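Please, structure for the following, as tokens.
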Amino acid sequence: MKAFASDLDRTLIYSKKMIGMYQAHSPYEPIEWLDGEEISYISLKTKQALKEINDTMLFIPVTTRTIQQYERIRLFQEDIIPEYAITSNGGNILKNGTVLREWYNHIQEELHSSVPLSEMIREIEGFSDNQWIKKVRQADNLFIYLIIDRSLFSQDLLETLSAWSSNLGWQISLQGRKLYFVPHIINKWKAVKFLCDTLNIDYVYTAGDSLLDYDLIVNGNDGISPLHGEVLEHYSLLNSTKTFGMNASEEIVERIQKQTLTIT
């Protein structure tokens, strides 16, 4: 069996800001609302291709979003309804919308190898130089993300925080105004690999744009990043699209459709 395991935000779906940065070449539609406002969109070409992919193989959304944030995306609640979805950066697997207890229990056991969430929050809130931090949030009791002021946040600080986090068993990823702190054990690819082993998936296409997607991209049988991906700033030799933004999402799914025809 084949599968397509893909990150969502900035890979398959896009915010208004991202659409503004990289002009879309084809029509798109809203798929997520918050407080009555449209906040996420998908290309109509990508949506149609995803429907066809979901009919011919296992499509697995893989996201750093919390369960609640994932469920806000109407596309995956109404139009394309995957049997499995991976949320919380790999910390949770949903089967038909319900948390898979076997994986959840495994993650809870493995978390003992990292500094606890509550201690990390105390450390972060205690930073002496914290003017760049606007909000501190925890996600599904698994990891942390900060809403930051990018104008006060430097590359040197990012590198310092990366080294500090790594020593505590955590990793970081900067995505727009959000800075993620995630335990090393919580990993998108590990969750995908669990499903591959459980469901006898023997070929998996993967896609993602952030540093948190690196393992997902390199361990898939055929992995790719959109050309605007953060991960390419650190690993420039990864397979990438030729286009940016929403156009890259179309390139990714069309590429999979073409490749599928050649794999038996």
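The mean pLDDT is 95. The radius of gyration is 18 Å.
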